[in-house]
């Protein structure tokens, strides 16, 4: 679990999930090829190498419904700009963009690695891509000393354009491409290939840890939302194989999900259409029947009650760490939960002997969102938003409860195993 949540970016997360699925007997499908699906078999497909859908087909008969779990592979952070090389005061630095709603202050004074996807032109003209993970402290973002900024502890704003370029080396000759060439050679033994483009991020090298006298806390980068990817995958691999089951992990949730591989894009809809064409009724009507007979559990972490900031929660809706998964509710549809899908999840938790909590944001505060409402809007599937409670969401290092991981795995496994979803309109 700790190793999984230390994965640095959506491309490595998707590859890690694919490797685990293949080890469990899932067959890879290509979107550009014809699919020949068989009842009782297990498959997965990726898009943009950063989003993945895995599904298990029931033995015999037509596909009548699906138990779907959704999460996302991306997390807020610092992405390198295309022309990232810059210099100041004799130091080589790299310019960044802030991806998503990151907490910026925790990024200072950390040992930073670099990871992501690099596209190469081989000597024969072919374009290829490699995953790069420089898991060494190659950069740091040093704070300004308190002696030079006496207002640093009084809420001073941080300017990411002028104050957040990490430092790599004391040099005025090197550039990013020459460093990338050396790193790719060291990791992949690729020579004489030109770097055409890349998508790279900085990340904190501190390893995940179990924290507390009784190790009741899990601290790591990117718990939001790789922890949900891990939990959903564990449940999918643990289910009894009797029902139609699907796991989708989309990229780009942290920036609105509006992409070909995001929840607002057609990825899940395309897969459902192909499933219906081969194992459903094959018609537009049967696709609607399949979707409306199914259910989606959207998994994205929830805000746990913070002991130092209790006033940030509604008094009746402050989820506690290690007290079970959280049903997330919002009257304005920032979460997709309704009373029917909430009742189903509560019943699943009862069957799995798992405690369950509920979160509603304060009426005088704004509310975040998830892939849940977007997926429900795009696909039309009944959806409930849930997640494990955590502290420090969108920080470079987040904290959750070690017991809550097992709780949600058990609840989602019960969901995948449930024969009757019980969501048909009365």
In brief:
With about 425 residues, the chain is α/β, with parallel strands linked by helices. The protein has ten helices and 20 strands.
Question: How does this model look, in words?
Answer:
The structure is a single chain. The longest helix is centred in the middle third of the chain and has 16 residues, at 223-238. The radius of gyration is 22 Å and the shape is globular. The model has no long low-confidence stretch (mean pLDDT 94). It has helices at 2-5, 10-23, 160-163, 176-188, 223-238, 267-279, 284-292, 339-351, 371-379, 402-417; strands spanning 27-28, 42-47, 51-56, 67-72, 77-88, 91-99, 112-121, 127-139, 167-169, 194-204, 209-211, 217-220, 245-250, 295-299, 302-303, 326-328, 357-359, 383-387, 389-391, 398-401. 26% of the residues lie in helices and 27% in strands. The chain is an alpha/beta fold and 426 residues long.
**What is the count of helical runs?**
10
H/E element string?
HHEEEEEEEEHEHEEEHEHHEEEHEHEEEH
Overall structural class, as computed from helix and strand content, comes to alpha/beta
Task: Assign the CATH class of the largest domain.
Answer: Alpha Beta
The CATH homologous superfamily name of the largest domain equals: Zn peptidases
Work out the number of β strands: 20
* Molecular shape: globular
Q: Roughly how many Å apart are the termini?
A: 41 Å
Main beta sheet strand tally, sense and closure: 9 strands, mixed
Shape-level CATH architecture of the largest domain: 3-Layer(aba) Sandwich
Tell me roughly what share of residues is in helical segments.
Answer: 25-40%
Rg value: 22 Å
Q: Could you report the average pLDDT, rounded to the nearest whole number?
A: 94
Kindly identify the CATH topology of the largest domain.
Aminopeptidase
Uncertain parts: none
Strand percentage lies at: 25-35%
Strand order, sheet with most strands: 1-2-3-13-4-14-18-16-17
- Summed up, the domain count is 2
